[in-house]
Design brief:
Length: 221
């Protein structure tokens, strides 16, 4: 589950939900809608949405990237935190899930800020780098798509980011499986190695934040 912060007892989460984050009504509505769909566990936690929105505001981010949009909760949280002329490029492979996202971007009045690219994100990112002149132009990026591709997404996001820009990476805990040597599904193995590689990566400042299912923050030096 990453719909709420892992490693926190449900009884405490109940308290935390009352004082720990504010969830705009439109995000609450999207959460309720997504809860009825398959794969709803892929949605980020509300405390994580608020945290990412705060980071985006703090950085005065203008241009952001999202890899893995699903029904749009994280993109909406970030888009609401962007200035009126802010921009976001969202990558996803699913028309169905992102149709829900589009509906809520419209309802929230942020659709103008968002450029949704349907297709394999690796191809979209390579195109942005090779053909669109977007290298070094992004302030913030959120990686939350297929876990085995995280290393490739990270390299491309780092290329697209300006120095001082921030990458946030979801699910770095894999519900605790990264710490269990017997857990060796592909996604967990790749995430475990990726976490170790980031520790050694001198191109970034690093903080692995124990919110939701683990959110690594990597600032490009
Ligand atoms: C899964 C993917 C996610 O990005 C997430 O946050 C939770 C679960 C999944 O693939 O099941
Ligand atoms: Mg995720």
């Amino acid at each position: 589950m990453s719909n709420q912060t892992d490693f926190m007892p449900d009884s405490f989460y109940k308290y935390y939900s009352g004082v720990g984050f504010r969830e705009p009504d439109i995000l609450k509505q999207l959460r309720e809608k997504t809860a009825g769909l398959s794969n709803s566990q892929m949605q980020i936690a509300p405390e994580q949405g608020q945290f990412m929105a705060l980071l985006v505001k703090l950085m005065k981010a203008h241009k952001t990237l999202e890899i893995g949009t699903f029904t749009g909760y994280s993109s909406l949280a970030v888009a609401l935190a962007l200035p009126a002329l802010g921009e976001m490029i969202c990558c996803d492979i699913s028309e169905d899930y992102t149709n829900v996202a589009r509906e809520f971007w419209e309802l929230a009045g942020v659709a103008e800020k968002i450029d949704l690219r349907i297709g394999p994100a690796m191809e979209t990112l390579d195109h942005m780098i090779a053909d669109e002149g977007q290298v070094g132009t992004f302030d913030f990026a959120f990686i939350d798509a297929d876990k085995v591709s995280y290393p490739g997404y990270f390299e491309r996001a780092l290329t697209l980011l300006r120095p001082g820009g921030l990458i946030a990476i979801d699910n770095v805990f894999r519900n605790g499986r990264v710490a269990e040597s017997g857990e060796n599904d592909d996604a967990t193995r790749v995430t475990r190695q990726f976490n170790e590689d980031l520790m050694q990566d001198s191109r970034i400042e690093l903080s692995m934040v124990p919110i939701a299912d683990g959110l690594t923050l990597a600032m490009k030096r």
